Amino acid sequence: MSGILPDESGSSAAGPPNQSGAGGVTHGDATEPTPGVTPSEPGFWDYTQSTLSAVGLAAGIVSAVGTGVAALLAATGIGLPAAAVIQTVAIAAGVVGAVASGTNVVITLGRVIAGDKNALDLGLDLIDFALALAGTIPGWGIIPTIIGLIFGGARFEWPSAGPGLSPQAGATFVVDGATISCPLAIPPAPVPKNFKVLPARKVKLRGACMANIKDTTTVVNIPIFGTCSAKPSPGGPLPCTPACVSWLPGHPTVLVEGSPALLGTCMVLCSAGGAFILIQHDGQM
Are residues 91 and 137 in the same domain? Predict the structure, then answer.
C-alpha cells in the first residue's frame, strides 16, 4: 500500500520530503502538480489501512481463541456460564474485525477510483472482508476466522518510508518524447527513436505525459525501428514489428493511473526479436 488520495484539484494532498508545494513530483529544480501519481512515501491512507488491518488481525485472534475456549468449556460441561460470556466476547471481536475489514474495502475502493490502487488490491480486501464477516457466525465462524488470519497475516505489511521517488540511484521518471533503442535495429534506421504516451494521459510531469509500465503498444507507444537483424530472409531482413508486454521493473510505489510508473532504468523484452528495448533518455526537458 502506498501514497495518498488526490485532492479535488487533482494534485496530491501532501508529498514526501523530496517534494515541494502541494504534492508535485520534483525532478531537478522543477516541481509541477501530478494528479494521479502516488508518492513513494507512505501517506495517511497507508497508515490508516495498515492500522485497520492490524485491528482486524487482533480481533480475529481474540475471536478464534475465544470461540475455541468456549467450545472446550461447553464440551466438558463445566463453566457453562463462563463459556457463554467468552462466546459473546468472541462474537463481538469478530464483528469488530468485520467492521475494520469492511472499512478497508471502502477506502481501497476510493483509492482505486483515484488511481492510487488497482482492482487486485480491491479483490484481496473483499476476500478479507468476506472471511471476517463469515467469522461472526456462532460456532462455525472459527473456520473462516482462522483462514482469514492466515490470509490477512500473509498480506499485512506496515508502511515504511521509501528512499524517495526513485528506487535505484539515478533512476528518473519517463515521459512522452523519451528516446528508446533496440540493439537489433539495422542502420541506417534512426536509433534511438521517440517513445510516445497518449495525450489523453492526465498524469503529467513538467507538462509532459508520464508513462507507466503498460505503455507498450506498437506504434502507439513503441515505434518501429526500421528492419530487424533477428529476422533474416532471402530478400533481406524483415521489417521491425515490436511485440512487447510490459516494461520492467517499474517504480515499486509510484502509480501512474493504476500502474507502476516507468523509470529510465526499465527495459522491455520484444518477443518478436528476443532482445530488450532500452530507454536512452527519459524525455524530461
Answer: yes
